[in-house]
Amino acid sequence: MGQHSRHRTPRRRIIGPTLLTSCTAVAVALVLAGAHTITSQSAAASSARPAAAPPADPAPSPPVPSPSPAAPTSQASPASPASPASPASPASPARSSSDAVLGTTAAAPADAQSAKVGALFDGAVAAGNHFCTASVVHSPTRNLLLTGAHCLSTTTGVSFVPGYRDGSAPYGAWKVTAIHTAAGWRSDQDEDEDFAILEVADNDGRRIEDVVGANDLGTEQGFTARVQLYGYPNASESPLLCTNATTRQSTYQRRIDCPSYPGGTSGGPWISTDTGDVVGLIGGYEQGGDTPDTSYTAYFDHTITALYAAAVAAAS
Fold this sequence. Notes:
seven-stranded antiparallel β-sheet; Thrombin, subunit H; single chain; six-stranded antiparallel β-barrel; mainly beta
């Protein structure tokens, strides 16, 4: 797949914008069981992995294989955006999430949940310019996004377009102003810390969470759950949706089998169907996976909780 201009190693999950950097990507570090200290480009916090691995989950119903600072407790209610006057209506012919057949992928319906998910753009908001996926995460500052750390390392020219479809930005384009990542990623590109929290500027005096709403950050929720997986393929101008059960891949990684999630879907949120929390994102192992039919996420534990706290403090 193409190389991303944000100083990252080429992987299948990311689409390459036109600008290339002079930096070569560092190799993905060995997964460490030791301490992990949280840092960000504008704030710092510290945290250590537990000596023991996260507890094993009770055996879940098996997933359907593909066919080919503590987490916030309140969730913001979506407010009416400036344009259009109300959240996106489900005018898309795509199926509703409640009708999803496990382990199948289709176009995501235009609804309140998909409005919280959008594409990251390099330069103009135009077909072919998006390179990764992100989603709005609830915070007291109401201006934070969640995406993969491997997606970008600079904010220059980057904007987030929630609910993007077919060249349309129904809730506007929001300028990315800051990136917060964990120390393990910044120093060694530790795949167990492949997550980033972004700040976005106000748009017409409004905070993004007041326009489209947000999902709470869900941490320490175990490895097995039924989730909805969203993502924007680089060759498509609308998001995909797949629902399936997750399983444990390794000590700090979980996986899901959903077909046809190619380059561009990196950073796409994993939304728990039980809690509505975002409990993962496409990233982690092989920056999201080495096949479009299986995706991975770094496990959301105290490491991302500390990163979230640092981002909130920096954005306040």
